Amino acid sequence: MEQSIEIDIDATPERVWEVMSDVERWPEWTETVTAVTRLDSDGALGLGARARVEQPKLPPTEYVVSEFDPGRAFTWLATGPGVRTTARHMITARPEGGAHVRLSVEQAGPLGAVMGRLFFKGLTDRYLATEAAGLKARSEGTR
């Protein structure tokens, strides 16, 4: 089951990427993340990078970057017993200026699909909306 949100941001795609890819600073602009700890290095985010993400109402989760397109997108993946969570973060330039962002979360696996549909759908929708609004505010310089 995949859930997503899209938002237009009045900032350059480069600025949005700067904010979005600096995962350790996410707690500064979204209340849905209380801590992000890089587990591999303090360098730039890249393919294979690992991070522990702590969020309210969810257990701490280790994500691994499985797809990476610098300046445009990254996907990270978390696995647990019966659950696979895939979170995608994509930026495209708008022809009229600014950036268009799509954030999505997919829950898969025997437990993931059931848990995502029955227990976490509302929470995930709220978290995606809050993260999109925070990313917009931080990228536009209002937060």
UniProtKB/TrEMBL annotation:
SUPFAM superfamilies: Bet v1-like (SSF55961). InterPro entries: Polyketide_cyclase/dehydratase, START-like_dom_sf. Pfam families: Polyketide_cyc2. This is Cyclase. It comes from Knoellia subterranea KCTC 19937. The lineage of its organism: Bacteria, Bacillati, Actinomycetota, Actinomycetes, Micrococcales.
